[in-house]
Queue: 2 jobs
Job 1
Amino acid sequence: MNTGMFITVEGPEGAGKTTIINMLANRLAEEGHQVLQTREPGGIGIAEQIRGVILDTNNTKMDPRTEALLYAAARRQHLVERVMPALEKGYLILCDRFIDSSLAYQGYARGLGMEEVFSINSFAIEGMMPELTLYFDIQPEEGLERINQHKGREVNRLDLENLNFHHQVRKGYFKLMELYPERIFRIDASKPIEEVYQQAERKLKEILNGKI
Ligand code: TYD
């Protein structure tokens, strides 16, 4: 089935994105879609190296603009090396985090400004915006609590930000939903996993059916 489409999944920490993406990818593959499930930096050597620098808990001196530029650089490499070739082959791409993460985390929560962060990212992505973005919404307190209970998940430099930062991230995502109401679809991620999955699947199918 040739359904080349670029879909991104977004949300604050602990919203359960990864679990739901796994479930969606399996279901779509069973139905005969060619699916590429990926995440930034997606195992791309150059992008992984950049990510190592960004998320290293020792890098406490990192300037916010440096952080934003590094995310944009890693994004570029992953897009060119993995996403674009698969899209050309007609794959349905499910990508865990993309430009909206930078707009919410660096643009809004870090206070760099969404427009400024958008402009460095537009250099990186050259207009390759997703056709659909599923935003998994959860209160930061609840999301962070889930992470704490989820032993084995590494704690990264951004997890260590205070609760206020995570509230700002969420506000950033709400701004993005206002800016892109046709592209970003909110999913209530505080519900039990099966219900969250169903909300996501319903929306995805709606978009896919409109396209095929
Ligand atoms: P990751 O371990 O991938 O977290 P998650 O499982 O929540 O996706 O770490 C990515 C971290 O980087 C996460 O805290 C969000 C943050 N981030 C940004 O601040 N800006 C970005 O552009 C991206 C892609 C991620």
Job 2
Amino acid sequence: MTASVEAHGYAPLAGKNAVVTGASRGIGEGIARKLASRGAKVVVADVNLSAATATADACGNDSFAVELNVADPDAVRDSVSDLVDKLGHIDILVNNAGINRDAMLHKMTDEEWDAVLAVDLSGEFYMCREIGTHMRGNGYGRIVNVASASWMGNIGQTNYAAAKGGVVSLTRSIAKELARKNITANAICPGFIDTEMTRGMPQHLFDAQLDKIPLGRAGQPEDVANLVAFLASDDAAYVTGEVINIGGGYKL
Ligand code: NAP
């Protein structure tokens, strides 16, 4: 048990197995820790195994790390097969892994376009297909796909916005397909969250983003994690196919 479960005795995810991608740091780490604090065993899936192991150790609940590149369909298939053998059931999938390669349209290279689409859109599709198929057999599942406020369109992010818009449409489609199997699927759209992804911005752009947030601060990974923990729980059993902003009022 994690310290939080011990302290509060609130464990709505006890007995659940969760897979969180890109969870070695940033928002994914916050989600992994939160799900564990609510009682789940968490598989921390990331390209960076040593950092993922540190997150899994912090989670407790017999959580563990796996090295996984979500953009590699064969690796996803093999890894999910191994996880099903090991865990027996996967109840919660959080597709969080993502990258950005921002550039204005006239400067964006094929490589920048392809890299972002491969991880941010195809990666979520591969994970949904493999784990969604497993969940169908179990007759239970909670899928949370991390999109972004940028899906509405953003300067310098044609690749990222297109991928995240694809995640929204993917999620709405699988929500309809999987509903009859007692599986929910929702997309969340973080606004401006304080992680390495945003800390790499020039200061004047960082400050300009803060000006767009009515609540007056950048979000923290835990802010996003609180929403994911709700969507992953049985309290959200009647919520599916939704696209939910989490940004302190942030609008592009
Ligand atoms: P982050 O700090 O850059 O963390 C992303 C994590 O994903 C890293 O651990 C990274 O590993 C991992 N990753 C990258 N490519 C991967 C792959 N192919 N397979 C598996 N893992 C991979 O990003 P973040 O800010 O926490 O963002 C998390 C998610 O939220 C992303 O989907 C992002 O698009 C979305 N989001 C973020 C914000 C924001 O303001 N931060 C806003 C809206 C949406 P490495 O250590 O190797 O890089």
